[in-house]
Write a structure and sequence with these properties.
The structure holds 2 protein chains of 2 kinds. Chain A is of the alpha/beta class. Chain A has one domain: Rossmann fold (3-Layer(aba) Sandwich). Chain A has 8 helices and 10 strands. In chain A, the strands form 2 sheets. A 6-stranded mixed sheet of chain A has the order 6-7-8-3-9-10, with helices on both faces. In chain A, strands 2-1-4-5 form a 4-stranded antiparallel sheet, with helices on one face. In chain A, β9 and β10 form a beta hairpin. Chain B folds into 2 domains: 189 residues, no CATH class; 199 residues, no CATH class. Helix content of chain B is 54%, strand content 18%. In chain B, 42% of the residues are buried. The chains are: A alpha/beta, B alpha+beta. Chains A and B meet through α2 and α3 of A and α1, α11, α12 and α14 of B. The structure holds adenosine-5'-diphosphate and magnesium ion. The site of adenosine-5'-diphosphate has 12 residues of chain A, from β1, β2 and α1. Magnesium ion (MG) binds next to α1 of chain A.
Chain lengths: 249, 416
């Protein structure tokens, strides 16, 4: 990795996040120190309950650490007001969920438009154009007016990616984006993230259970019990979507 | 989110569950339409009563014996009923002391039965002078009015109200025929035109000279001047001089009754304006009562809106989480839900105004139990009703919206 002097996209210093369940305290994040530079493509792996989602929610400005500091693009997130957090979510990052989280009654295009509706300054036409471009980017030119129920899981997840892309943020966070997908759709989604990283220079953080998905990234961070137990750079292995034995899984 | 987007989003959400929205709306529609219809009926009654009183002529002043009604109510007793005499009435005809008085018509009353052959009816008898008809805007249809000669002669003559005439004689002209009133034989000299609708209805009355009523019907004694009267109708020369006339009447009567400076009046002077104000006051209370009852149904409608909004917030928790995750601020969520609530109550308000208006419009002139219902539609009531329905939406929508806006995004996203 080339050393950079610019500010990292993400910097976590001694971050903890605790949940109180009755008298019992769960340390979902237990002293995390982590730096992610612009243009990186990171996989976060670890067993269930190890704190991956909690980390992603923190990075996505949906949750705040119990202690420690999180700096996003040079900004201390703990200092942001609720409104500024909402603005940061809409402007600086795109979030992709395992369960897609699309509005079920809205069409693909209208789902992708949603972040634009909350940031003002876009006319209806501009919103639709931007949404079409994003949908074209994920290969859904034929699905503008489909509702989530009328699409396959892979297509729905691509709508989710288009929604994360529509405001052209530099950072894409994906929490188990392939968790509900078959192998072929998974491969397509990962390919798409690759392309976003390599062709558009976006910083990508992906949580996954799937070691093959992880090995497709350039850096793998392993979690256990709210701590980082491993952090290594790898040479990305492209997944072959056509591989027959994977299809049968 | 700007206002247009907000409205479009709210419309989509409300439209997504049409049956539910319609039922919720219905509560508001019923509330608003009943407010509009009730107020129209109430105002209609008020206006028609006022119109009837005005029919009698705004120059009319009524003088009655006894202290005012309030004292009557508190201290009991009806005051001294002998306190107004025929002489008091004649004193009001003075050009110097009461220049603004045009006409003075004293009256007293008796009750009894009137019979012609086998036809018999209970009548409301009034002893009057020649001036009575003019004071009440009445006209003779058959025969003639009671004259002052009849009054002087204590004649046994009678003028019939139209209903009395019809009861006893049917459609026949009774002028010249004999009638027995409480055992005495009278000659019918005239019939008064029907006045259906006025406040003190003369149709069922029978009129005789005031002297006859005193000496013959009430077995009174004494000089003519001392005849007691139950009421004096006074006409002022014009509407503008009513207040002056009232003052003059008061001065003359206080002098005649030798009342000291500290003594209260032993008579009441009531102008038509007083009557209108009293009645409008009473009816105003009635209108407010009607409005309040209708308002309660609007309130119930509002509670329905709140109920549905709370259900909606719970059902759409995940949607709220999604919106928050892609950049919606708390304020955006708050406004979205408030807009949905207001949209429903506003639409309900508009439909309610239209329905209420239609009820008032088609109900105008309808008869219920023989009473003609008159309705008066007032634009400002419709505007107020609309504003209130929006306020109901705001009031009942705000709490569910605050709940929606305060949801934690992560927990909302986890919600199934
Ligand atoms: N909102 C919460 N309330 C209580 N405990 C939580 C909450 N979110 C996460 N946890 C706990 O924190 C730990 C880490 O959870 P999570 O980050 O979802 O793990 P992962 O995504 O790696 O499976 C788990 O033990 C989980 O039960
Ligand atoms: Mg998880």
């Amino acid at each position: 990795m080339i050393a950079k002097t610019t500010t990292p996209v993400i910097e976590l210093v001694d971050v903890t996040r605790q949940f109180q369940i009755g008298t019992h305290v769960v340390r979902a994040l237990d002293g995390i120190n982590l730096k992610i530079e612009s243009g990186e493509m990171v996989a976060i792996i670890g067993p269930s309950g190890s704190g991956k989602s909690t980390l992603m929610n923190t990075l996505g400005c949906l949750d705040q650490p119990s202690s420690g500091s999180f700096v996003l693009n040079g900004q201390y997130v703990s200092e942001l007001s609720d409104n500024q957090l909402a603005e940061t979510r809409s402007r600086q990052l795109g979030f992709v969920f395992q369960s897609y989280n699309l509005l079920p009654r809205e069409t693909a295009i209208s789902n992708v438009e949603l972040p634009l509706k909350y940031s003002g300054g876009y006319s209806g036409k501009e919103r639709r154009v931007a949404a079409r471009i994003a949908l074209d980017r994920v290969g859904l030119s034929e699905r503008y007016d489909h509702r989530p129920m009328q699409m396959s899981g892979g297509e729905q997840q691509r709508v989710g990616i288009a929604r994360a892309l529509v405001k052209n943020p530099d950072l894409i966070l994906a929490d188990e984006p392939t968790g509900n997908l078959d192998t072929k759709s998974s491969a397509e989604v990962i390919e798409m993230l690759h392309s976003l990283n390599e062709n558009d220079g976006k910083t990508i953080v992906v949580v996954t259970h799937d070691i093959e998905v992880a090995e497709a990234m350039k850096r793998i961070i392993a979690f256990r019990d709210g701590r980082i137990v491993e952090d290594r750079a790898v040479v990305p292995k492209r997944i072959n979507a056509q591989s027959p034995d994977r299809d049968n899984q | 989110m700007n206002a247009r987007l907000l409205l479009a989003t709210a419309l989509t959400s409300v439209g997504a569950n049409k049956l539910r929205a319609s039922l919720t709306l219905l509560g508001i529609v019923i509330g608003v339409s009943s407010v509009i219809a009730m107020m129209a009926v109430g105002r209609g009654a008020q206006v028609s009563v006022t119109a009837r009183i005005s029919d009698l002529g705004t120059e009319l002043i009524t003088v009655r014996p006894g202290a005012d009604a309030l004292r009557f109510a508190f201290f009991g007793g009806g005051g001294n009923s002998d306190v107004l005499s025929l002489e008091d009435a004649f004193a009001l005809r003075d050009d110097v002391f009461t220049p603004d008085v045009k006409l003075v018509a004293p009256e007293n009353s008796f009750s009894g039965s009137a019979s012609v052959g086998s036809e018999n009816t209970f009548v409301n008898g009034l002893g009057v002078t020649a001036e009575y008809l003019e004071s009440r805007n009445l006209t003779i249809v058959w025969g003639r009015n009671i004259s002052n000669v009849d009054v002087e002669n204590i004649s046994l003559v009678a003028v019939l109200g139209s209903e009395t005439s019809e009861t006893l004689y049917g459609q026949r002209n009774p002028v010249g025929s004999k009638i027995k009133i409480s055992g005495r034989e009278f000659t019918v000299i005239g019939v008064i035109e029907s006045q259906q609708g006025t406040i003190s209805n003369p149709d069922s009355s029978i009129f005789v000279p005031i002297t006859t009523a005193h000496y013959r019907m009430n077995n009174g004694k004494g000089r003519v001047a001392s005849i007691s009267v139950s009421s004096i109708s006074v006409l002022a020369s014009s509407e503008a001089t009513v207040d002056d006339a009232r003052l003059d009447i008061s001065t003359v009567l206080r002098l005649r009754h030798e009342l000291g400076e500290d003594d209260d009046d032993d008579f009441q002077i009531i102008t038509q304006q007083d009557t209108i104000e009293t009645l409008e006051g009473t009816e105003g209370t009635f209108v407010i009562l009607l409005g309040a009852i209708a308002g309660i149904s609007l309130l119930v409608g509002g509670i329905g809106v709140m109920n549905i909004m709370l259900v909606s917030v719970t059902e759409r928790t995940r949607e709220i989480g999604i919106r928050r995750a892609v950049g919606a601020k708390r304020r955006d969520i708050l406004l979205q839900f408030v807009t949905e609530a207001v949209l429903m109550t506003f639409a309900g308000g508009i439909l309610g105004v239209m329905l209420g208006w239609a009820i008032a419009y088609f109900g105008n002139g309808a008869t219920v139990d023989g009473d003609i219902i008159e309705t008066v539609i007032e634009t400002h009531i419709a505007v107020i009703a609309l504003c209130v329905s929006v306020a109901v939406g705001l009031f009942f929508g705000i709490y569910p919206a605050v709940r929606a806006a305060s949801l934690n995004p992560i927990e909302a996203l986890r919600h199934e």
